[in-house]
Every structure is written in structure tokens, then in C-alpha cells.
Amino acid sequence: MIQLTNVSKIYPNGSRALVDISLKIDNGEFVFLVGPSGAGKSTLIRLLYREELPTRGQVTMNGRSMIRVREREVPQLRRNVGVIFQDFRLLPNKTTFENVAFALEVIGVGRREVRSRTKKALELVGLANKENCFPHQLSGGEQQRVSVARAIVNNPALLVADEPTGNLDPETAWEIMELLYNINRRGTTIVMATHAREIVDQMQKRVIAIEDGKVARDQRQGAYGYGT
């Protein structure tokens, strides 16, 4: 599904975020990206939803080059990729329902379908009874559930998450991971950058370790592999 071939990312100041990375991620996989802060994990995540482009190399998704996609085609491409952030990034002046529905409205989905799909997404994340709440009325875990619902409301083939449990207490973090696990079981590919050692060790999924912009380790049923 996802193929990175000899990918490097060098910023204008000379910083080398990624160095000659080659990876293949298959449909339906659950992949953890681990490694020290500043290793290049977030840069790799941003390449997957075309927030950034590589300096060298090729990124393809389902055989389609992410580099050759025209700017006007990017919104269409992003419909197949859901994104979850550490800091939730909810619109403070919109309700739970409106935050999720907005992801559909901006791509022109009809009103009836917006309502149906938004309600289904909120039911899936356990927030059907919170649809009229504003972000400030929700706990951190509930806000992250809203961001998960927003990310999956388009039924994307790929879900990328950048430290989605980083601002949550351990119990709430596990609730989010159980949610992501169930979404993955429904067939969605998940790539998640994280520092959560206990989560990575217990879930025993594929682990790709990034160090100094390079792939240092790629293990099936891997462990976090770093100290606290």
C-alpha cells in the first residue's frame, strides 16, 4: 500500500530529517514508529499525508506517486488518509458533531450523508451522547475521541497518528489505543508515531525505529527498545 524508496528530507537550514529511507507498509498493518525526539518520526508521518514532500526519493500510495500529484488533486488524495494529532486540533467554536461533520462538509458531501456518517463515527468512538458539547466541555480523552471520529469519518484506507496519546493519562491512553486497535481490525491501515513504551511493548505490532533520520530497526511483533 505505502512504499518509500530512498527517501531523504533535508530542510533549507541543512538539517537532515530523513536519510535514504526505504519502507513498505501493507494494507491492514498496524505500525508503530519509535525513536528519540528529533529522529524524524513526525517528518515521516507528514510525508504520508503530503504535508511535506521529500527532497529526494519516491513516496507512493497504492501505486500512485505522492510527489507527482498536482496541487488541485491533493484534497482528493487526503480523503483516503485520516490524521490524528497529539494536541487534538479541534475547532473551539464548534460542537463535537460540527467538528466531525466539518471534515465532510469541506469536500462537498451532501447534508443528509454528512449527518448519517457523522453520527456513525461518533457512535463508533463512544461519543453519541456528547454531540452537542463544545471542546472545552470535554475531557482530554473525549477530545481525542472526537479527533479520531473526525479522522475516520471519510472511511480512509490509512490512518496516521502523531503521538495521539502524548497528552493523555495512562488509562485514557489505553482507551484510545483500544479504539485504534478496533479500527485497525476493520481493515484500516494505521501508522502511529509514539514514545509510549508500555503501549508498544504490550501491543506487539510491527515496530519501525527511526534514529538520526534512518531506519535503525524494523521488527514484526516488536518492542519499544529504548529506556525511559
TrEMBL record:
GO cellular component, one term: plasma membrane
UniProt feature coiled coil, ranges: none
Location in or out of the cell: Cell membrane
Keyword Membrane recorded: yes
Gene Ontology MF terms: ATP binding; ATP hydrolysis activity; transmembrane transporter activity
Membrane topology: Peripheral membrane protein
Record-annotated ABC transporter domain positions: 2-227
NCBIfam families the record matches: FtsE
Stored PANTHER family: CELL DIVISION ATP-BINDING PROTEIN FTSE, IMPORT ATP-BINDING PROTEIN
Similarity-based family: Belongs to the ABC transporter superfamily.
Complex and partners: Homodimer. Forms a membrane-associated complex with FtsX.
UniProt protein name: Cell division ATP-binding protein FtsE
Upper lineage: Bacteria, Bacillati, Bacillota, Clostridia, Eubacteriales
